[in-house]
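Dear colleagues,

I hope this message finds you well. In preparation for our joint manuscript, I am sending the Influenza virus NS1A-binding protein like protein B (Ditylenchus destructor) sequence together with its predicted structure, so that both groups work from identical material. I would be grateful if you could confirm receipt.
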Amino acid sequence: MYESIFPAVVGGCSEPDMHRDDVELADATVNNESRHLGKWRNATTNCEQGFSCAAFCQFKNFGGLIFGGYDGIESLNIVNFVQNNGTITPVKSTLPTRLKNSAAVPIDTDNKLSVLLFGGWDEKRTLNAIFEYSLQDESYEVIGILPVSLEGHTATLAPSSKYVIICGGFDGITVRDSLWKYDIATKQTVMLNEHLDVARENHAAVVLSETNVDGETVNYFVVLGGWDGSKALDDCEVFAMSDNEPFLVKVTNHVLKLTEPRNRPAALVL
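The corresponding structure tokens are as follows:
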């Protein structure tokens, strides 16, 4: 059986001082044997304002949310909702602050859908605030404080949905090599013993899973590319991931390199 899906690309900076407000969709069909992307086409609706550098996340069978961004002049406090068919509409409740270079994580607990926003830049300073956005009443609440201010970092939900790994970023002074764990139940953030070999911001991070010889699922936290403060990076770092101490353990026998250095790449698990 085929399933229709609509990969979507929203906004972005196409050249200096050109921040796009349009949405592109690619019709696609997927079955157990093949995946096929059709031609890209423009969606029927555009964003009210062009942007790049936004935080975004997606809920299964619900759609996606895009928070803030940068329009070439200033950071934004807008929120856009992207439906599964590609239709985009602004959310009535704006962010409590202008925000770019933040990181968003979708949370689905106790039949409550929310988004956690970690750090970012508010036009004045790099932030250490953790915001929770409730989809039910479109409200925001500051629920925690990061140990340091961060922007250009990643925030990645663990497969168990128990915690979030916050990786790297810029603290307003220097690029970080740190790894933190945010506990969703306790709302506490702690620095892990492991750290990146290369300090980086504007990178990508994903979780990959495999089944070992014992039939157990093994998860890996993979960090890709980014910017070390002076140049784009082509290296990747791999950590074994678990729900128990020490949560992340560096895998030293995996040496991965991208074919090209990539600053602010996008990474998907296909």
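For the figure legend, we might mention the following. The radius of gyration is 18 Å. DSSP finds no helices and 23 strands in the chain.

With kind regards,
E.M.
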